[in-house]
Amino acid sequence: MSAIIKIENLKREFVVGSETVRALKGVSFEINKGEFVSIMGTSGSGKSTMLNILGCLDKPTSGEYYIDGIEVSRLSKDELAFVRNRKIGFVFQSYNLLPRTSAVEQVELPLLYNKEVSSKERRERAIYALEQVGLKERLWHTPNQMSGGQQQRVAIARAIVNDPVILLADEATGNLDTRTSYEIMSLFQELHQKGKSIVFVTHEPDIAVFTSRTVMLRDGRVTKDEKVETKSAQAALESLPASSDYN
Amino acid sequence: MNFSNLFKIAYQAILRNKTRSLLTMLGVIIGISSVIAMVSLGQSSTLNINEEISTMGTNLIMVMRKNQNRGGVNLGNSNTQSLTVKDCEAIKTKCKNISYVSPMVSGSGQLVRGSNNWPGSIQGGSADILTIRKYTIEHGTMFTEDDIKEYKKVCLIGSTVAENLFPDGKNPVGEEIRFGSIPFKVIGVLASKGENQMGQDQDDIVFAPYSTVMKRILATQYVHMIYASAASENVADEAVNEITSVLRASHKITNPDDDDFDVRTQAEMLQMMSSVTGFLTVLLAAIASISLIVGGIGIMNIMYVTVTERTKEIGLRTAIGARSRDIMFQFLLESAMLSLVGGIIGIIVGLIISYAATQLLNWPFVISGTAVIISFIVCAATGIFFGWYPAKKAANLDPINALRYE
Question: What ipTM was assigned to the predicted interfaces of this complex?
Answer without folding.
Answer: 0.92
